[in-house]
Design goal:
With about 750 residues, this protein is mainly alpha-helical. About 65% of the residues lie in helices and about 5% in strands. It contains 27 helices and four strands. The strands form two sheets. Strands 1-2 form a two-stranded antiparallel sheet. α2 crosses α4 (about 155-170) and α15 (about 410-445) packs antiparallel against α17.
Length: about 750
């Protein structure tokens, strides 16, 4: 079956013979069936192809038109939001990003001056710094912060983008004389960062369309229908299509009317838009699966593109939390397509921009682990390590010009030799498998009797000797390889270092024989990445090296604000509610209990660790739910992947209202499951936007005409119950089986089913 055959409409089977309806065999009941001639067979085979082509063209043209108009409307809306809120921006964050980039350029200029003063060369201007010079200055900035000379908490990816932004501003055609961030009338210094926010939202929308399209398509060919509406089931597709088109047109008319008037929409218009949107999502979920897939994907993409939380954080605040969202959505799409190594690499790339994304990313590691897919788990971890080492290469293995010329000869030799052993081991395994397959194929061929009598050669004996010979060669290579690697172990290592080195050696010698040949390249890349990390620790750390990029970019932020709540008076979650009720104190390091563990000793549990353990348990439950839903091709796997992004802002301390943006954007996939969860997605998006706007307006102190100003702060901390309720709904939807009676249509029969998304025989 063609992968796009779902777009071909199926022939309608008649319920009553006669009247020219199509009967059971595809011909009209009032006329004889066509003869089984070549001409009739050719006509029957060309008709579905023609229908498929027309369906692809029509749907593709519609999606192209809608996507183009959405891009134009979204970019204009973002430009309007930025200009209209010029007095309300959170100046400290955006100026901090620009100043961080300028500081990196100043360090690069100082290094360039010191280098050229020795050889009397020409100095490099700020707009001509190479990427290697910027990376060198970034490393120096991290070391400076580690020594106590600043307040930097940016991960490497975000600091690199800020540095490139400052280099762009220093170009002659832009703002070369600017040393501090200002954005007065006619000066769009922030344009590169805002465009980057826009592109991140657009990429998230495209990835969300593909993700929802895939899982709705996998969920089956039949739609669940309520028992109360089972009698109207034959007319649902037509009525749902009419209702979807009418509600979409009504929404566009109301939006166009609001834009033309230029005023804030009245309560009647808001009510009408809400009703039309509910009708739209209900009717889309009643469409046949072939059309419901792209329709739900399109609406999910539009909800990401026009998400109020995304707009508020990206263009009113502005901040850069949206940068990690497209990486996770694309990683979830790759995991759904069994591209686990690429999914892990995308998770590592997203963590370079936002360290908080590491709180929700482990769901893609635990999902295959709890589903019994050990190989997928290892490939995800391998992709994460490989991408992390590739992105942080210049920090892990620095050189004089921060390229690939290593200045530590011992480290260079160690990495090259270990990687060479791994490459030889992988090639040995691949060659042995090819040779064994060739010999076994020969052993299954027939042997002429004369050859057997003359030579006495027995192919069954040869088929037994071939694996034994391959095993002997492999054992010899393993012994030689282990002996050679053991001589490369650094002297004077601790027990932990020796154990890590032993695991690396076993991985090189034994693991390639246990994994499929198609995964050997991923294994080789992972081994090289692990070698670089261990080598950096063995040699550089003991030679006065440091992990400043990790300590400052990923660890420092967790201790920078040691309090339960960020954004006082606006954002509320479980720790804030418990603090206001007097059940716990505001100290995150308050000791809760002390555990005595074997081989570990006494382990002190503080308040932050306690809440983190609660989140970890719920994360494991969500991963178990994702594994169960994936086995049944149930689209509720998307809810399981989304739930952690609601849970960690709702349960963990040191959270901000901006962190709800990630859950608000990712939860747009809820339309693939039910209308009720879609309404919850809208509720959390609006709540996050209101909290963000109140935080911005409180900090700026400028007068505003925003009609909902003060709504979140006036209901503080009771607004935290909305956050907890939305998180609980998504958590329960991802964990519970949710058995309910529904009516499923198979062919022309209506039968009951106990689960939505259950597999239906075709």
């Amino acid at each position: 079956m063609s992968p796009l055959q779902f777009l071909v409409p199926k022939p309608r089977h008649s319920r009553v013979a006669g009247c020219g309806d199509f009967g059971e065999h595809g011909h009209t009941s009032g006329s004889p069936p066509l003869a089984d001639s070549p001409a009739s067979a050719a006509i029957g085979s060309c008709r579905p192809i023609r229908q498929l082509v027309w369906a692809i063209l029509i749907v593709g043209a519609f999606l192209a038109v809608v996507g183009d108009q959405s891009w134009v409307a979204g970019t204009r809306l973002r430009d309007y939001i930025w200009v209209a809120n010029r007095e309300n921006h959170y100046i400290s964050d955006i100026s901090n990003a620009f100043n961080r980039g300028r500081h990196v350029l100043e360090l690069a200029r100082a290094l360039d001056f010191a280098r050229h003063r020795a050889d009397s060369g020409e100095l490099t201007t700020a707009d001509q710094f190479t990427i290697g010079q910027i990376l060198e200055a970034m490393d120096l900035s991290y070391k400076e912060q580690q020594a106590g000379g600043g307040n930097l908490d940016y991960p490497p990816g975000r600091l690199f983008i800020a540095s490139m932004w400052a280099r762009w501003a220093a170009q002659p055609g832009h703002f070369p004389g600017m040393t501090r961030w200002t954005d007065g009338p006619g000066m769009f210094v922030s344009e590169p960062m805002l465009r980057l926010n826009t592109w991140a939202a657009a990429e998230s929308a495209v990835a969300m369309f593909l993700l929802v399209f895939l899982w709705v398509l996998r969920s089956g060919r039949t739609n669940p229908v309520s028992p109360a509406t089972a009698a109207f089931e034959p007319w649902w597709p037509c009525h749902a299509a009419i209702a979807a088109v009418a509600s979409a047109v009504g929404l566009l008319v109301l939006i166009r009317f609001t834009v033309l008037t230029g005023d804030w929409p009245s309560d009647i218009i808001w009510l009408g838009m809400g009703i039309l949107f509910i009708v739209l999502i209900v009717s889309v979920n009643r469409l046949p699966t072939a059309h419901r897939a792209w329709a739900c994907g399109l609406i999910a993409a539009e909800m990401v593109w026009f998400d109020p939380a995304v707009l508020a954080v990206s263009h009113v605040w502005p901040q850069w939390d949206i940068w990690s969202v497209p990486f996770f959505i694309t990683a979830a799409l790759c995991a759904s397509l069994d591209l686990w190594f690429l999914a892990g690499a995308l998770l590592a790339a997203g963590a370079m921009f936002k360290a908080q994304s590491l709180l929700g990313a482990p769901i893609l590691v635990l999902w295959p682990l709890l589903g019994g897919r050990w190989g997928a788990t290892l490939r995800t971890i391998g992709g994460f390590l490989t991408a992390g080492v590739a992105l942080l290469w210049t920090f892990l293995v620095p050189s004089a010009d921060y390229t690939f010329l290593v200045v530590y000869p011992q480290l260079q030799h160690w990495i090259v030799l270990i990687a060479a052993f791994a490459a030889v081991s992988g090639c040995m395994v691949a060659a042995a498998r090819l040779a064994l397959r060739f010999v076994l194929r020969l052993s299954r061929q027939s042997v002429p009797p004369g050859e057997l009598l003359l030579t006495g050669d027995s192919r069954p004996e040869r088929s037994r000797l071939a694996p034994a010979f391959v095993a002997l060669v492999a054992l010899t290579f393993a012994i030689v390889c282990l002996a050679a690697i053991s001589r490369m172990q650094p002297a004077g290592g601790s027990t932990t270092e020796n154990f890590a080195f032993g695991l690396l050696a076993v991985n090189i010698v034994c693991l390639p024989w246990l994994i499929p040949s198609r995964h050997l390249p991923a294994w080789l890349l992972t081994t090289v990445a692990a070698t670089v990390l261990l080598g950096q620790y063995f040699f550089q750390y003991h030679a006065n090296g440091n992990w400043a990029w990790y300590d400052i970019g990923f660890v420092y932020g967790t201790g920078k604000f040691p309090r339960m709540q960020m954004g006082a008076g606006v954002f509320s979650n479980l720790p804030v509610l418990l603090t206001h009720m007097g059940w716990i104190s505001n100290d995150i390091h308050e000791r809760v209990a002390t555990l005595t563990l074997p081989f570990w000793g006494d382990l002190s549990i503080d308040r932050r660790t306690e809440l983190g353990l609660v989140y970890l348990v719920m994360l494991v439950l969500c991963a178990a739910g994702a594994a169960r839903h994936a086995r049944r091709n149930d689209p509720r796997v998307l809810i399981s992947l989304t739930a952690p992004w609601f849970l960690f802002p709702a349960l963990m301390p040191q959270m901000s209202e901006r962190y709800l943006l990630m859950g608000s954007a990712i939860s747009a996939c809820a339309i693939a499951v039910s209308c009720r969860l879609t309404i919850v997605h809208i509720a959390i998006g609006v709540t996050s936007a209101l909290m963000t706007m109140d935080q911005i307006l409180d900090s700026s102190g400028a007068p505003t005409n925003f009609p909902f100003s003060g709504m979140a702060s006036s209901n503080y901390p009771a607004s935290g119950w909305i956050v907890l309720a939305c998180a609980a709904v998504f958590f329960l939807a991802s964990v519970l089986p949710l058995r309910r009676r529904s009516i499923l249509r198979i062919g022309n029969q209506i039968t009951p089913a106990s689960r939505r998304g259950s597999r239906i025989p075709c």
